[in-house]
Specification:
The complex is a heterodimer. Chain A is mainly alpha-helical. Helix content of chain A is 46%, strand content 9%. Chain A has one domain (17-105). Chain A has helices spanning 22-30, 51-68, 86-103, 107-113; strands at residues 36-40, 76-80.
Chain lengths: 114, 225
């Protein structure tokens, strides 16, 4: 397909989004990531029944934590798409990157560097 | 088990506002089972505090430790060599933990990171409900295995009050009237007569009303023989 998506996105592969932990997301923010998104399979189509649903709950937990810390919850997102949706993958990457660009650099990174 | 809920991050951050080196101490007992103060929750709190501090541009060093139990002196003695290295310690154990720690290490400040709430169990994954009030004189068998002391808002011993409607307590629509359940269970078993006798006035002395309680198992106390 030769679709392009922003080079800002660093992909970390996991066998199933059910493997993604709250700590993975928090540690990414802690280490200065401007945003993190989880790209899981379509809801109802998880090979492990509900891995993507568990991931969504964890993403929601991290959103609540960020809100409590005064950081924009939009920096963490959950998306659902199938492995056959290459175009959608690129679209999501663009969508996330433009959203993060609107928010600006992470306040965690900004103050740490200062 | 003892059920606890983690305090809000705002409350915890205010506690350690001026501290630069802290220890977060978890407990492998009840709070691990109710996902409030085990290893995972300790790590999540540590990361959350670090994020907050980085956002403020202020440094903080956080170490973590998860003790076997914080309600036994032999386990909290395990941090004796390092406990003095920190400005403060946040304990994610139930209310017993920070007290035992404070008693053993009087020079250190221990903050409770959780609100200890009740004795209960998990009714489904992620949901815990109160089942025991620790009143000191268990009579669950008189009520079909359902405790009216812990589960009736008024701890009534002789049947439901007028606030019971359609099996729901008037205090809160999410509270089941336990007396409704007790009576139904006895009716289904054809043993309603069990509830006909009047229960006398309960002696609350064995509950908290008699002051702090103590339990002594003489055969276990060293030096008794």
């Amino acid at each position: 397909m030769r679709l392009s998506y922003p080079a800002d996105v660093k992909i970390i592969q996991v066998p199933c989004t059910g493997r993604v932990d709250i700590l993975h997301l928090l540690n990414a923010i802690e280490d200065g990531a401007d945003g993190v998104y989880v790209a899981g399979c379509l809801e109802g189509e998880c090979h492990y029944i509900e891995g993507n649903l568990k991931a969504r709950r964890k993403v929601e937990y991290v959103k609540r934590t960020l809100t409590e810390l005064g950081i924009e919850p939009e920096r963490v997102q959950m998306y659902n798409l199938s492995s056959a949706q290459g175009a959608r993958f690129a679209e999501i990457a663009n969508e996330m990157v433009s959203q993060i660009r609107e928010l600006g650099p992470s306040p965690v990174k900004k103050n740490n560097a200062a | 088990m003892i059920v606890a809920d983690r305090k809000s991050l705002q409350e915890i951050l205010a506690m350690v506002e001026d501290d630069k080196e802290i220890l977060i101490a978890g407990c492998k007992g009840c709070v691990t089972v109710c996902n409030a103060g085990g290893l995972k929750e300790v790590e999540i709190l540590a990361s959350s505090i670090k994020i907050a501090r980085k956002k403020q541009g202020k440094d903080i060093d956080i170490e973590i430790e998860v003790l076997e139990r914080q309600c036994d002196n032999e386990y909290i003695a395990g941090i004796s060599e390092k406990v003095g290295n920190y400005d403060a310690v946040i304990s994610l154990a139930c209310g017993v933990g920070p007290q035992f720690l404070s008693e053993m290490y009087p020079d250190q400040t221990f903050y409770p990171g959780v609100n200890t709430t009740f004795l209960g169990g998990a009714t489904q994954h992620g949901v815990w409900e109160e089942r025991c009030a620790g009143c000191g004189t268990c009579a669950i068998h008189d009520f079909g295995g359902l405790c009216p002391i812990a589960r009736c808002a008024k701890s009534l011993m002789n049947g439901p009050c007028g606030g019971s409607s359609q099996g729901i307590c008037e205090v809160n629509k999410e509270i089941v009237c336990i007396w409704d359940l007790i009576v139904r269970k006895k009716m289904e078993a054809g043993k309603l007569a069990d509830l006909m006798g009047v229960k006398g006035v309960k002696n609350w002395k064995s509950a908290r009303h008699g002051g702090p309680r103590k339990s002594i198992r003489e055969e276990l106390v060293q030096g008794n023989i």
